[in-house]
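Hi Y.,

Following your request, here is the sequence exactly as I used it, all 96 residues.
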Amino acid sequence: MEPEVTVGEFIDRLSRCDRDAVLRLAINPFFPMAHRLGDVLVGTDECGDSVVYIGESKEAEQFGPLPPEVAVALTWHEPVDAPPRMRRSARRSHTP
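Below is the corresponding structure, written out as tokens. Let me know if you'd prefer a different format.
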């Protein structure tokens, strides 16, 4: 299991990003979706250590599936190609 990310590490990662870019939360590796962020709150865990929580917006707005390249970059999905499509005939025969 990977160690948890600290606030400092997260700030360092964010500092490499465009400050005007929209920030969304990617969740659920098996059905990856994007959510709008809400409040940032400080609490404590079961050991009494400080934990910062990033909440979902009050509207609980889900933007739909993550772009496939994001799910692949997160290593949640393998890169895949679209399946080949069968060419359909322009004419269809209708049998009465």
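The mean pLDDT is 84.

Thanks again,
Q.
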